[in-house]
Amino acid sequence: MAKNSLRNWQGVAAVIGVDWGDSGKGRIIDDLAQSAQIVARYNGGSNTGHTIENHFGKFALHIMPSGIFNPQSTCLIGRGVVCDLESLIDDEFIQLKKAGVSWKNLVIDEEASLTMPWHKQKDGLRENFRQSKIGTTARGVGPTYADRIERVGFRVADLYKKDFKKLLKDEIGFQNKHFNLKLSYGKILSQFQKYAKIIKPFIGQTVPLFQQSIKRGGNVLFEGAQGWLLDIDAGTYPYVTSSNTGVIGIWRSFDLHPQKINHVIGITKAYTTRVGAGPMPTKIIGSLRQLIIEKGHEIGTTSGRTRDPGWLDLVLLKAAVEVNGVNQLAFTKLDIFSTFKKIKICVGYKVGDKKVDYLSGNADFLSRCKPVFMELDGWEEDISKIRKFTLLPKAAQNYIKTIEKITNVPINFIGVGPRREEVIYV
Ligand code: GDP
Ligand code: IMO
Ligand code: MG
User: Fold this and answer.
1) Which DSSP symbol is given to 201?
2) What is the set of active-site residues?
3) pLDDT of residue 4
4) Shortest-distance ligand to the CA of residue 23
5) In the prediction, which pLDDT does 3 show?
6) Which residues of the chain have pLDDT under 50?
7) Is the separation of the CB atoms in 23 and 46 below 8 Å?
8) Ligand 1 center to residue 268 CA distance, Å?
9) What is the spatial distance between Cα 357 and Cα 336, in angstroms, rounded to a whole number?
10) Superfamily, domain 113-201
11) What does the pLDDT read at residue 302?
12) Whose CA is nearest to atom 9 of ligand 1?
């Protein structure tokens, strides 16, 4: 299998989840950003929770790009991100400030939509009303995107318009009257006037910035949020998020054709997890479920909910690889498998006796699919100190090679611990 080391990557790279999210995107972006002039978020909002552990400490980022720890990287929040200023300013800036990390290289696109207090309230109200819950993070992401599509939402630049006060008052009046909310205009005005002042130096146009960087030969890294299986169009609707999580999201946010991305890096854990509702054919139950949750600390970064673990699902992974043109894979949490006697991977589905060869985003259909497993040997040794592929136990090497063979995509990054340096570059 052709290996193309990621450690010295150049050009345009994108990291996208080929799963239901929480695969370790934050930690790989933090690492790869050391070679990036630009690190850009293109989708999602504060529903994202990207964990980073490096020499500055441990962080949970929601809106801020995970490249912020690298002083040479300009970090862009693209127009396709829904911008939650409360999360950015009252949580993330504080985390970074405490650790002495500067965000002077941050640029927020003036056309990005703003998540406002009513979006968060409506996310929760709608979820409570649903017969069948999605398990939304209640961060207001869906309602913010809905307003953008309806062309009624506030965008970052609106904060600086002469008539902002009037626009805000009218909108709050509308929300209170038609949605029976009890929003306080005075409170929201002073909150957003404060935010507007704080972020003013960081507002700009992100598309020309990234285009200029490419012209100068700079390396550009796109940071996906969530994962392909939660994509609004391709995922199991309605158990999805509200944005395009794959390469098409980059196009929508930065006008960049997917063909121009040199490294499309699909990331997943060595097993898989899902948080919130929706079908998951390879879900693990019983004592092994508990073991993985405890060993892997499978608790959501944003919502604090327990994630459901499952065996790696190569049917879904291969679909994500195919549609997004993934040409390299990154695997995290291989260390969690140490001491497992047997490891399963799902290599096909059956519905009744019939083999399934077409998958759509139909949640009901996916919930009827039964996995066909291949079983591989596990290993006993702790692998967290290993930094070279050939030093891994033979069974661990075999696990990686088997997946490469089935997917026909090289695995170039293997996480063996949560910290930046706990990785094997292959
Ligand atoms: P993201 O949303 O894709 O950035 O992932 P999250 O941060 O939500 O969840 C990934 C979790 O796994 C975090 O707690 C990380 O610190 C942790 N993690 C990432 N890579 C590894 C790894 O290789 N080994 C272990 N043990 N933990 C990891
Ligand atoms: P990162 O970037 C895992 C899930 C929620 C819910 C569904 C809809 O950290 O990988 P939403 O708040 O978008 O309306 O929720 O999507 N979800 C995530 N699951 N990781 C995420 O982000 C997620 N963002 C949303 O749990 O099932
Ligand atoms: Mg996460």
Assistant:
1) G
2) 22, 50
3) 59
4) 1
5) 56
6) none
7) no
8) 10
9) 31
10) Adenylosuccinate Synthetase, subunit A, domain 2 (1.10.300.10)
11) 81
12) 22
322-345: b (≥16 Cβ within 10 Å) or e = eebebbbbbbbbbbbbbebeebbb
d(CA 129, ligand 2 centre) in Å: 19
Sign of CA dihedral 297, 302, 306, 307: negative
CATH match for 9-110+204-425 among 2.40.50.140, 3.90.170.10, 3.30.70.1130, 2.60.40.10:
3.90.170.10
Where in the chain are the domains? 9-110+204-425, 113-201
Find the residues whose C-beta lies inside 6 A of ligand 2: 17, 20-22, 44, 47-50, 134-137, 139, 141-142, 225-226, 230, 241-242, 275-276, 301
Residue 136 CA to ligand 2 centre (angstroms): 7
Model confidence pLDDT, tens digit, residues 328-382? 999 999 999 999 999 999 999 999 999 997 788 899 999 999 999 999 999 999 9
Closest ligand 1 atom to the C-alpha of 301?
A: 8
pLDDT at 359: 82
What local confidence, expressed as pLDDT, does residue 303 receive?
83
Among 18, 22, 27, 424, say which to mutate for ligand 1: greatest number of ligand atoms within 8 Å of CB.
27
Residues recorded for the chain: 426
